[in-house]
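Sequence decides. Our protein:
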Amino acid sequence: MVLTKKVTAFIQSNHLISPKNHIIIALSGGRDSVSLLYLLNSLKTELNISISAVHINHGIRGSESDDDEAFVKKICSDLGVKCSVYKLSGFGKNAGENALRKARYKKYEQEIRKFDNCKLATAHHLDDQLETYFMRVFKGSGPKGLLGIPAVREKYIRPFLSCSRYEIDNYCTENKIPFRDDSSNFEQDKLRNKMRQRFTPALKEVFGNDYLGEFFKTHQKYEQFYRESFDLNCVHFENKIVKKKNQIIINKDDYLLFEKNQKSQFLEYCFSYIYGLSFTLASDQINEFEKFVKSANTGSCFEFSENQKILIDRSQLVFFVPQENQTKFWELYESQNVNCDLYKFSISRIDVDKVKINKNPKVEYICGDNLEFPLKIRYWQEGDFFYPLGSKGKQKLSDFFVNQKTNILEKRNIPLLLLKDKIIWVAGYRISNLFKVTEESKRVYKIEIETL
């Protein structure tokens, strides 16, 4: 009852669960996750929620992994709780923790999409929080990293985060809850296991039995301070940036004038907006990035990870989402519309005498005497060239973009309209001289692009 009240209070104070939520419990079969399953199952009427479970069979411990799966299925069946099982493949016994976590959370996302108004609960507890905190302290984490494991992150919640492992053990014993021990939890080559078996017992010996309770109170104060500081800085950041879809742009000098702590929070702010995730940076990463900002030339990219890149564009930093769109293409038929990622193209034949002088870059008129449908729409590719209207001869498209002061990122997202391999229109910028309307034109087409 003590643990139940404590968890209920934590859920309410941190707004983890709302009435009519569907809660998926990440169920490994171990003591913590099975206890969470039993506790939320006992609270589902009081909280007005529905529950289910999801089990990930990593397949890295042979028959032991299969036994875990069978055990999880049985306890869910006994409780009348629906359980989904996902089996991972391609991982050996020595698979890295980060790779396994990434694969596991992909399956979690897949499961979450099955339900409306859904959240996924993991059984992280206060001991996990303490271990995470000190691991990050000794690895040189920045202020954001010292927040540790969040009680709530998007659709993920941690109802046990105020409870110690000892309290969960007692709950498990009192309620005669079955569970399985994961043999990998006792392997000495894993850092977290070393922390659990050597470091935290020493803390208890030095600081007494309530060391976790005092840590929890201090950590709560730090989290409140950090959030208030972050909120204040966000107001400052908003005045320094330009936001576009999937982009944040800031002047390099403005970034360099930030205090060190502000730089860390600014990067967190950008990653959250652009990539929709929480990202923890170590101090050495921030220092490396600052060196890059001071010395890199236009067109250079800094990679925090494969999907987190920052471009130098003259005097600006551009945070963006990398897109592999150079091989995409669409077909545009006569008198039809087609949607291409963020754009809608349309083409229609008009009478020659209805051609108007036009200043709208999203609308053009072209000679259609030699057109053959369907036309092709794609993005810029290395080696592209065309004959810009108003210019003499042909020009590399990359040079044209430089003249238009279009950065490397933007040029990769500008659609092109082509007849076979000939560029008709750099959409929103210029048509080709080869397709301009003249007095001899017998067929004229109106082409338009619209941002969706």
Notes: Residues 211-238 form the longest helix (28 residues). The mean pLDDT is 90.
